[in-house]
Amino acid sequence: MTAFKQRVLSGMQPTGNLHLGNYLGAMVNWVKMQETHETLYCVVDLHAITQATSVWGGPATLRKSTLEVAAAYIAAGIDPNRSILFNQSRVHQHAELAWIFNCVARLGWLNRMTQFKEKAGKDRENASVGLYDYPVLMAADILIYHATHVPVGDDQKQHLELCRDIAIKFNNDFSVEFFPITEPVIMGTATRVMSLRDGTKKMSKSDPSDLSRINLTDSADDIAKKIRKAKTDADGLPAEAEGLKGRAEAENLVGIYAALSDVTVADVLKQFGGGQFSALKNALADLAVAKLAPINDKMVRLLADPGYVEGVLVDGAARAAVIAEPIMAETKKIMGFV
Ligand code: TYM
Fold first, then answer.
1. What is the 315 CA–ligand 1 centroid distance (Å)?
2. Percent of the chain predicted with pLDDT > 90
3. Quick check: is 202 catalytic?
4. How far is CA 151 from CA 19, 77, 154, in A?
5. Separation of 307 CA from ligand 1 center, angstroms?
6. pLDDT per residue as tens digits for the range 270-302
7. CATH classification of 7-186+305-335, choosing from 3.40.50.10490, 3.40.50.620, 3.50.50.60, 3.40.50.2020?
8. Can 157 be counted among the known catalytic residues?
9. Is 119 part of the annotated catalytic residue set?
């Protein structure tokens, strides 16, 4: 088996505000992986346009959101000198490889993608072809760098399986060991942060209720208010993790606390088990403000100089292309393009 260099790639869409789910499910791990791996992080602007224009907001909003997400990466601890930070549309090889992968991936594989079904909803005929093809572009994002590890939240598991299937089929079809079989990295106690209003739904940018999520740009007052109002059940907190089973809201708040303080769920229950939710909620509000306020402040400072943030993306894209271009060229050679 070919030994591939350990390399990390991940990305987020510049649609709407980033929230606590994005931060704990993905970004915290991105920051950690800078210590151990070569890391590439992109703002996936080509993915953003797969939804209706009213969702991604049109040209002025796309531009603003792209810079905001890049600023959030830096503010959360992505160091543009250590990591390659760029926006996807600047490195044309992503789209080029996606076309080739369109001819590798099978319709049946894409038909099974649950995220497409959720996002397209009932009006599937009216969804863009790009939304259907979203996971293929995602596979190209990863494999154009021969990335071996992809840190994401739990909701991306199925897309990463598709990425593996594409790599395996390409390798088999052309009798090569060219693309790595990428490992998803889904780690921590908050791999699936749930809505604060309904513990059965994922915390999401698209939830109509702003009370359902904590945005990275929320003020301290808003964070405290949202946590105070978070749905809970009638029982107190259990002393052991077993007691959280079937109690989605309780499990979510404990998981968020554990992730923000970088301890285990058992540790949190040692401290708060047997008590009322109010004690946990007060401590969680303080903790969330302490963690998020410095990120928010740094984002505001960075965005006061959008030229700097754009410069980081331009520089990152040039560094990314140095890795992507030879892999693109070799892919074409393997397939017989003249
Ligand atoms: P996006 O922007 O929808 O989500 C960005 C990251 O945040 C994670 N996430 C969550 N984690 C825990 N709890 C939640 N409630 C929650 N909501 C979102 C997502 O799992 C993701 O890691 N399709 C990707 C973007 C992408 C990508 C890629 C990722 C495009 N190309 C290549 C990795 C590699 C996505 O979900 O974006």
1. 24
2. 96
3. yes
4. 17, 15, 10
5. 26
6. 999 999 999 999 999 999 999 999 999 999 999
7. 3.40.50.620
8. no
9. yes
